[in-house]
Amino acid sequence: MIMTELVFATNNSHKLREIREITGDSLNIVGLGDIGLNTEIPETGTTLEENARQKAHFIYEKTGRNCFADDTGLEIDALEGRPGVYSARYAGEGCQFEDNIRKVLKELSGVENRKAAFRCVVCLIYEGKEYLFEGRIHGTIMTEKHGDGGFGYDPVFLPEGSRQTFAEMPAHLKNGISHRGRAMTKMMKFLRNF
Ligand code: IMP
User: Model pTM?
Assistant: First the structure.
């Protein structure tokens, strides 16, 4: 069987690794480094959908290859959905994961409603056409960090029904329930039936 090859439009090595863990042998995921594409991908949208589409189309225009991009936001109820589309740079341009976590914990200090959800939108461009897939996981924001796996807000995100934060779980458990895992499962199913 010939494996479907897809370029993944990201410069984030954590995400590339996670996506490969999620897709396993079902897809051949090609990173930008693998095709010698060293470029900043524009991300100027005001919604996850806009950003995912913008990134996928940018790479498609550059390479002409089947490709996909994802965009994720952490949507916190008590913060009216923030940081949302601005999750990566919530504490400012060039900030670290640590800075973002500190800002969120400060804003939630003393707040009782700690409900939140990760939402991921994947934009696939396959044989010249665009398709969107969404995945979501509900949970709560802890009052302090737990665990050192994963990335981003993982140490403070406790998925619904779990006793471990995303950062405390083995990768395969996180990927089985995560926003990105769910969106990617939909994309893989779509490709299997194409
Ligand atoms: P991106 O759009 O997937 O690059 O995600 C934007 C930001 O959301 C990242 O920089 C992280 O801070 C956060 N994020 C995305 N996915 C995850 C995840 O699986 N766990 C924790 N944080 C995440």
Answer: 0.96
